[in-house]
Amino acid sequence: MSHIVSLYGSGGARSARCRWALNELQLEYEYVDEPGLIGSEKLRQLHPQSKIPAAVINGAVLFESSAICSYLCDLKPELSLIPLPGTLKRGLHDQWISFAQSEVEAYLWSNVKHRSLYPEERRVPDVIEQNNIEIHSGLKVLNTALSKSDYILGDEFQVTDIIVGWTLNWARRSGVMNDYPRLISYNKSLLKRKHCVLNSE
Ligand SMILES: N[C@@H](CCC(=O)N[C@@H](CS)C(=O)NCC(=O)O)C(=O)O
Q: Cα(53) to centroid of ligand 1, in Å?
C-alpha cells in the first residue's frame, strides 16, 4: 500500500529523525522546510505549540518526532524496522526511546535554553551543572546497555536506533559524550549508514 506523507521540519532538528526513518523505509514524502515555519499559525494547525516536526500521514496529523517515526514504521511492518505491538521487544523499544528523551535529551535541551535561547533574564546558569549530572547518569546507562549488542534492541538496526541515535548525536555534538567509548563507536556506526541524515560534525 502506498502512503501520502508531508513532513514539516528543518535541517538537523528533531525532524531529521523522521527524514532518516522515511529514507530507511523508502517512503516518498513532501518536505516542508520554510523560513518562519516554527511559531507560525500555519504550523500551529498541525502542532499545538507550533514546533517541528509535525507530519500529515494519509490525511492524519501527528506530532512528536518519536511518535511519527514509530507510526511510519508500523505502516510498513514488512521492513521490520520496529518490533510488533504486544511483543516484549516493542516494550523495550518504548522503554529506550522514552529513556533517551526524558533522561538525556530533555536536559540537553534545557542546557541550550539556559545558555542561549531564553532571554537573559530567564537564564539560570546553575541549572546547567545540575542538568549535566542528569545527562551523565543517562549516558552511563545507555553506554552499559549498548556494550552487549550492536544496536539498542540486539543485533538488528531498528527505528529505536534512529530515535536514541539522534539524542546521542546531540550529546556528542554538545561535548558531553567523550567518556563513553561504546557510545562513541555506536554513534560512528550510525553516521556511516547510507540513509542517515544526522549532522556528523
Ligand atoms: N519532543 C518534541 C520536541 C519538539 C521541539 O522542541 N522541536 C524544536 C526543534 S528541534 C522546536 O520546534 N523548537 C521551537 C521552540 O521550542 O519554540 C519532538 O521530539 O518532536
A: 7
What is the model's pTM?
0.98
| 179 and 101 assigned to the same domain | yes
CA dist list (Å): 163 to 25, 52, 119, 167: 15, 15, 29, 7
The set of protein residues with a Cβ atom below 6 angstroms from ligand 1 is 13-14, 38, 51-53, 64-65
Query: Which residue has the CA at smallest separation from atom 11 of ligand 1?
Result: 51
Q: The CATH number of the domain where 95 resides is what?
A: 1.20.1050.10
Cα(105) to centroid(ligand 1), Å: 11
**How confident is the model over 190-201, as a mean pLDDT?**
96
64 C-alpha to ligand 1 centroid (Å): 8
pLDDT digits (tens, 9 = 90+) for 89-134: 999 999 999 999 999 999 999 999 999 999 999 999 999 999 999 9
The answer to whether residues 55 and 118 belong to one domain is no
| Mean pLDDT on 164-178 | 98
Total domain count for the chain? 2
**Residue ranges making up the domain that contains 98:** 88-191
**DSSP state, residue 151:** B
Return the pLDDT at 2.
87
